[in-house]
Amino acid sequence: MKRIGNAFKGVLGGLVLIVIGVILLWWNEGNNVKNIKTTDEMKASYVDVTSEMIDSTNEGKLIATNGKLIYNGEVSDVTFDVKVDSPLLKRVVEVYQWEEESSTDEDGNTTYTYNKVWKDYIIDSSEFHEEGHYNTFALPFNNETITADEVYVGAFKLTQEQVERLSTKGVVRDFNTERVLELDYTINDQYLTTSTDVNNPQIGDSRISFEYHDATELSVLAVQRGDGFEDYVSSVGKTVSKMVDGKYSGEQLVSIVEKENKILKWVLRLVGTLLCIFGVLAVLKPISAVSSYIPILGNIVGFAVGLVSFLIGLSISLIVIAIAWIRFRPIIGISLLAIVAVLIVILIIRPKGKKAENVTPLEPATQTEPVTVAQEQVAQQTQVVPEQVNIQNVVEPSVQTVPVQQPVVTPPTLDGFDARVPEQVVAPTSESVIQEPVQPVVVPPVTPEPVAPAVVEQNVQIAPVEQTPAQSEQQVVQVEQNNSNNQM
Fold it and tell me: pLDDT tens digits, residue range 86-98?
């Protein structure tokens, strides 16, 4: 029951997460629109200038320039006797200390774990929930930023704040050993440490490192003001002052700003969407908590609640983003919604259209089957080779060939010779076919009953059937027998 009670308590927290997610998404879309307008203005107004001289006609204009960094000598950390040839040097002091982390299970039981970490500030251990983990010490030295007195990009002077914003990719590894030992530190690569075993530090150990700006050229996108730079302020109130190591044109600098804005936009969209999803999940948590006492049902319901939470949270995020676009950019927002509506209509109507297209209209009977039947019947009665049957275009109904009794034809009797012929001509069969060099018997056409309604006209060509000498001799004997029978 404790699990259910904690789930109901989490409903309020879930609602708070949803509200925070909605507010973040709304603000992010408004900020994104401002960023887009700002970069559009910058693209249309920036001027590429040389850094070797200052042109007063560009006063108050957005300029893009690049040049060599010029400063008055090296900077140094007097305490540790660290010197570098750079306009910027930073001392980073860290202490090995306790850090508390917590996790809560489905029953509402919270577990606290404690890890040892390096931090450049002291974690307040008085807020820890369990005793035995204390950070009762302070930083042995302060973190410090050291800059050159005057720093120029060509003829343009950077302010103190602009110098401190320079990158610090360089790392110091060259130390004054005597000075380090005087301060009770030892050198371990890039660190000065108090640990006796650098691979196994103890709580309270400290380490110090030094970072510096190591680029020799700098590109700046800002407003020219006197002999220096100031932030560019767009018509929507966004400020821009971009400095990048190396040499870049104005177009490239604006593109860098645009890419950074896009990354920020998508990161905040993701965070806002996750807040909405987890908020909905917390609101629906009581459902999965109640069903969790039934093993199989609990797993199914838990999965369903997670899926529904994802879909609802994602839907809330998309709706907020769409409404925000209508608020901040009405034309684009309404156009997008119109496109979505059209797509939905198409998705609804298209399946019906496909069903109608899939209905096959009735077609007249094809000629394949009747032709095949008629062809087989003709081939059986006339010993036609199937490959020699040619089917022409459809013009008349097909005709079935039927066997016909041949009438007895008695030619005139010549003097001294009986020329009578057999009373009946034996129809050829598959075993014996008579092929004689005589004129075929002319049979008057007989109109048979139509077998099928209609389809093709056949042009049957009967190829002569080759016979063996034995078959021919057998046929001659049969004819002579028939003549003898007739004389009798």
Answer: 999 999 999 999 9
